[in-house]
Design goal:
The complex is a heterodimer of chains A (144) and B (115). Chain A has 144 residues and is an alpha+beta fold. Chain A has three helices and five strands; from the N terminus they run βααββαββ. In chain A, helix 1 runs antiparallel to helix 2. Classes of the chains: A alpha+beta (144), B alpha/beta (115).
């Protein structure tokens, strides 16, 4: 895999599966073991759900862009939507007693649980979420 | 794709689920199943998750929603045989403190109140 790859997806539910599959391939190519590949794919899936549903609100003229950057020692994944952004303070804690029985609101929490870092960069023109996962010592990037 | 086999054992509806409970088809299928069972008067439901290898946040939300709905109608919904991945997911989201999770089907069936 080239060091940097990007895909652009439509704002449809099916895009979530496409994003997950692309993340699996990128994580495998970067040299992550199977467990980490699934963790990365799940984090990307959750953030893409937010981008498609909450950011772009399924609007057909808006896109979600995913960038996979396989750097020495880590995989950096950026997910950008074209929504209106949000206030980070608006994200409720899904573990608090008043939220634990809510049907939604666990996506960012799960992404944080599975990645080494999750950075939210909301703006009026869209939100960029940057996910990072460090490669374990000794892991090797696949060639080709 | 979520596959479902429905069994009735000692007055408990056991749903053997296989596949993924995720945004879209999987979560929608689970929602329809639970509502259909409630409409048919069933109030004792056991979800066997032994063959469910993946649940995302939408699937978790559907499990929580199903649990709440069944309880609101005076019933009980329990979980059976979690895979390691699903167990870890419920643990990290603290939902293990909400659901009654059983390892053994006989034990799970016996834990439902008599009709």
């Amino acid at each position: 895999m080239p060091r940097m790859q990007a895909i652009v997806l439509e704002s449809r539910i099916e895009a979530v599966d496409q994003a997950e599959a692309a993340a699996l391939r990128a994580a495998e190519s970067a040299g992550f073991a199977e467990n980490d590949q699934h963790s990365i794919a799940m984090a990307v899936r959750e953030i893409t759900v937010n981008a498609v549903l909450h950011g772009n609100q399924l609007q057909p003229d808006k896109r979600v862009r995913l960038e996979f950057d396989s750097q020495p020692g880590e995989l950096v994944i950026s997910i950008l939507d074209q929504g209106r952004g949000f206030q980070p303070g608006e994200i409720p804690d899904p573990l608090s007693p008043e939220n634990i029985m809510r049907q939604s609101g666990r996506g960012i929490f799960l992404a944080r649980a599975f990645m080494d870092s999750v950075e939210l960069q909301p703006s009026p023109n869209g939100t960029r979420v940057v996910l990072r996962k460090h490669l374990p010592p000794g892991a090797e990037r696949k060639r080709g | 794709m979520l596959q479902v086999v429905e069994r009735n054992v000692e007055g408990v509806v056991v749903l053997d689920l296989a596949g993924r409970i995720t945004l879209g088809e999987g979560a929608r299928r689970l929602r329809e199943l639970i509502r259909s069972l409630l409409n048919a008067g069933e109030r004792r439901i056991l979800l066997n998750l032994a063959q469910v290898d993946y649940i995302d946040s939408s699937g978790l939300g559907e499990l929580v929603s199903s649990y709440t709905l069944v309880r609101q109608q005076g019933g009980e919904l329990k979980l059976l045989s979690l895979t390691r991945k699903v167990h870890d997911l419920l643990q990290v989201t603290k939902l293990l403190t909400v659901f009654d999770v059983r390892e053994d089907e006989t034990d799970a069936l016996a834990s439902f109140p008599s009709e």
